[in-house]
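Quick one: structure for this chain?
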Amino acid sequence: MSEAAPLLEVTNLKKHFPIHKGVFSRVSGQVYAVDGVSFTIGRGETLGLVGESGCGKSTVGRTLLKLLEPTDGTIRVGGEDITKLDRAGMLPYRRRMQMIYQDPYASLNPRMTAGEIVAEPMVIHESGTPQERRERTAALFQRVGLRPEAAAYYPHEFSGGQRQRIGIARALALNPDLIVGDEPVSALDVSIQAQIINLLMDLQDEFKLSYLFVAHDLAVVEHISHRVAVMYLGRIVEMTDKKSLFEMPLHPYTEALLSAVPIPKASARGRKRVILTGDVPSPINPPPGCHFHARCPYAMPRCKTDVPALREVTPGHFASCHLHDGGVRFPLQAAA
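Got it. Here's what it folds into:
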């Protein structure tokens, strides 16, 4: 699936948004949206990034594409550091990294035809002649399940699922290596979600694409991802292959997320229900130590002061929790 050298390598990525107050817009604080995130994505691999709303997962996707400038950390694409590149320096990498947005109603320019929207990346990057762009656009429409004649229509003439297919065609226009999907199916009907997910998986097999798939729906993530990273308040708290994550979560937050997934009654017998108390802390003033300690049923005194490192607890399974210090595995079910 993935080769030795990862396509994307993100190390200690941070994105803090300043808070301005007063007449002179003085900086009075920071929103710690992303606070030290590290992961890799191999060629042809899908990494699912999950967590509650506001945890920073969409900001991670936009920052690694340099749509937002990172506050700290490094981003490497194919081994090349792109963190400090300016707009002109990023242009070659824009061809290799594209994005599918969450809202298919807001992400398409209503003043452009669908064909112009899909061809726009080729125009910007001066790829091919006008005739070659038209042929490429028609082929992309057909590949994502739209009639080539629909290229003459405007976005308001399409359904939500069709608009998202246009967004996918636009992302494919420059033959990218990596696509960031920012909750690309969350605004769609459930029946349409399955079609779009299957389309993305088929395209991955056909074009050897890598995905960062941002989502909050664990069922969708389990279906499309090879590995899964769980975020809480700007940090990754657990990361492993999807089978290990769903069968044996090693972080209390992941355990709580999985216990909230609705399943049939027959399958739910014996399953432990974890109810989290309190609200998610503010990213403006996150708690010291482990960000999750105020809501964690297994919290220890040191959790309030010491930041747990994201360590490899079992081969390929990383967790950021003091329950696993020293590489010793403590099944959460037994820890209660």
